[in-house]
Amino acid sequence: MKNIDTEKRNPKTTNIDNLPTDKMLELINKEDQTVPLAIADIIPIIAESVDRITSSMNKGGRLLYVGAGTSGRLGVLDAVECPPTFNTEPSNVLGIIAGGEKAIFQAAEGAEDDIEAGRKDIQNLNVNKNDTVVGIAASGRTPYTIGALEAANENSAYTIALVCSYGSPLAETADTALEVNTGPEAITGSTRMKAGTAQKLILNMLSTGTMIRQGKVYGNLMVDLQPSNIKLRERALSIIIEATGCSESEAIDALKNYKEVKPAIVSLLTSLQGNEVANALLRHRGRIQDILNGYPSADTLNKS
Fold first, then answer.
1. Which of 44, 68, 76, 187 could form a disulfide with 112 if both were Cys (CB 3.0 to 4.6 A apart)?
2. What are the φ/ψ torsions at residue 136 (nearest 5 degrees)?
3. Is residue 81 among the annotated active site residues?
4. CA distances from 279 to 85, 269, 296 (A)
5. In this predicted structure, what is the pLDDT of residue 296?
6. Which is catalytic among the residues 7, 48, 81, 185?
7. What do you get for the CA distance between the two ends of the chain, in Å?
8. Where does the pLDDT of residue 295 fall: very low under 50, low under 70, confident under 90, or very high at 90 and above?
9. How does pLDDT run across 67-121, given as a tens digit for each residue?
10. Residues 302 and 272: beta-carbon distance below 8 Å
């Protein structure tokens, strides 16, 4: 363990327990600030991963996150946010954690040592060549996660290792290694800190980047948002108004008619109505801009 960066002692924080609270927190904050800079070094590799994930998902594949402990929980967190944010099917982006669902809420540290459990969890999901499996582990040495990637490789899935140290077994197992060197933690070995932050930021990039490429974002608006509660309905109306410049009453009517944000926007920006909207979205893989490139706007029609 001494050769693993995330397990080394941080020379900058050896006196952290003797500092006043504000100075203690300043030290933690300074260490946290190094994380985005470390990620910047591997953005080209993350970009390649996003493009490959997008291509696979366009063929019907899934995005699966696998990990143990904090790493597994972060994968689950990113996965469960995709349906309400991007209107994905719950089965399209999955988080798999060593020890099963109960390990999300209660530590199951021994589960991470079971390499066969990792293999079995992947096999039970019938992973195939169109799927992407992301193994998440700060050290890159978690047996459960290694087993999962090995099984994914055997089923011809695209595999990614998201690790926070160099030269790990997990990185060697994957098709693509996202190795972000976050260095020693402020509290030695507490990888829920900088390593966890790096993992969360990169998972954000993988899922959000893929969803943007799939047309689930128009400009920087979440046009596949599910208006499933009062707050999200208000956000949906705001998105429609921002995207089209329509009035609030027009946005309300469009959302009422089409039930979802994206078709409401298309109906307001083009001459299309009813089933024509749904057919256009289907033909253009849900990409609003592609639809707009092929149809006259409602304003143009009104002026003619």
1. 68
2. -115, 125
3. yes
4. 23, 15, 16
5. 53
6. 81
7. 73
8. low
9. 999 999 999 999 999 998 999 999 999 999 999 999 899 877 778 889 999 999 9
10. no
Q: What is the pTM of this model?
A: 0.90
* Beta carbons of 78 and 148 less than 8 angstroms apart: no
Q: How many residues in the chain? A: 304
- State phi, psi for 237 to the nearest 5 degrees: -65, -40
Out of 7, 101, 112, 116, which one is annotated catalytic? 112
For position 172, what pLDDT does the model report? 97
* Half-sphere exposure (Cβ direction) of 37: Cα atoms closer than 13 Å: 6
Full 3-state SS string of the chain: CCCCHHHCCCHHHCCHHHCCHHHHHHHHHHHHCHHHHHHHCCHHHHHHHHHHHHHHHHCCCCEEEEECHHHHHHHHHHHHHHHHHHCCCCCCEEEEECCCHHHHCCCCHHHHHCHHHHHHHHHHCCCCCCCEEEEEECCCCCHHHHHHHHHHHHCCCEEEEEECCCCCHHHHHCCEEEECCCCCCCCCCCCCCHHHHHHHHHHHHHHHHHHHHCCCCECCECCCCCCCCHHHHHHHHHHHHHHHCCCHHHHHHHHHHHCCHHHHHHHHHCCCCCHHHHHHHHHCCCCHHHHHCCCCCHHHHHHC
pLDDT digits (tens, 9 = 90+) for 201-217: 999 999 999 999 999 99
Local confidence band at 156 (pLDDT 50, 70, 90 cut-offs): very high
C-alpha distances out from residue 199 to 39, 61, 138, 173, 182, Å: 10, 22, 8, 18, 10
Catalytic site residue 150?
no
Residues of the chain with pLDDT > 90, as a percent, come to 87
Rounded to whole angstroms, how far apart are CA atoms 291 and 217? 14
The burial class, CB within 10 Å (0-12 / 13-18 / 19+), for 235 is middle
